Amino acid sequence: MGTCATIPEIQKLAIKSRIENPGQYTDYHLHNIFVNAAHDGTTPGRLLDKMFQRKFKSSIALYRKTKPTEFGKLWEQALNGGEVAGSYYALLTNSKTPPAVRDKAVGDIHMLSHISGMSCRIDLKHLPQLRKENQELTLQLKKLNLKYLKQVRTSEKIEAQLEKYRSALKTQLQEQTDAKTRLDPREISELKKLREKNQMLIELVDRLRKEKTDLRQTMQQCHPVHSESQQPSSTKTCGVSAAATVGAESRDCNQLIANDGAESLPNTNLLGKKVLYVGGRFRQAPHFRNFIEKLNGTLIYHDGGREDGDRRLDQLLPQADFVVCPIDCISHNAVGKIKRECQKHNICFLPVRRSSLTSLTRALGHAHS
Predict the structure, then answer these.
(1) Under CATH, domain 241-368 is a member of which superfamily?
(2) 221 has pLDDT over 50
(3) φ, ψ dihedrals at 217, nearest 5°
(4) Are 228 and 127 in contact (CB under 8 A)?
(5) Residue 278 near residue 338, CB atoms below 8 Å
(6) Separation CA 49–CA 320 (nearest Å)
(7) What is d(CA 57, CA 87) in angstroms, rounded to the nearest whole number?
């Protein structure tokens, strides 16, 4: 009764058996009623047996078509799999069950009840602390949500200002274009500068829009409700095989990139992966970004320390799938630090000889070959 029938099932059977005013009984009293009814052949006992026959139909059929000498193996499989109720009922009601197997099953269930009770007591002891931690985490999430919301609003405000400025420049550019035939060489040079400035503003607006989208996605991923117990978080790789392959992958990438004269793969598809480019020249970043996006990837740029600090680099590294580092534009100490961080986070490290689009193409091609 305690293993194969749940409390809700017993309550439904009590109503169905027409027990007088079943609501007056506690769960313990109902349990005792049906334990006794299972032996005397009354209506509650018959309904209980029908429920078990229907509930454990597959387990009963399995034991019927299995030799009694194999019952012990079936019971061990059920015990290890955590689904013991059906096998327990089939063993105890099958007349062919060997006594030794029946005794072992009864003993296993008895000890499981002790283990379950001990586990419940331990969980109840830690419950107040878990609730306190949950409240603290909830408060932290609320603060983070407010921070991200403020950043999104600031980004929207800047975007609106830039859009307004861009529209004004566009209007000015159109007016000057209409009068282009009347412009002297000096005015034509000024017009060219305005066009370049307008293009830079367009790229800046696109970048702000993308950052706003990322902020909104981060807010959506922050849920203010935490469960009182958490499963161990998964990692990018699993078990010993992942740890073993990380070093090999890094060595393979380094060997491939060292051969800078090899042909790159023109049809590389990054499949949405993120490439962190550390160092190089800032004006190259838009060209690198356009190139990476054509390969179905995302570029994250860090200038190597001119304006972006080490703290931002530490924040960006865990987000990347590949880290490209031109060794002609960054110190040896910085390269060594980045390489160690890549090994720590299981990220493929791609050093290249120089900061150029050709070197980036070859590096990504080798990484996918």
Answers:
(1) Response regulator (3.40.50.2300)
(2) yes
(3) -65, -40
(4) yes
(5) yes
(6) 59
(7) 10
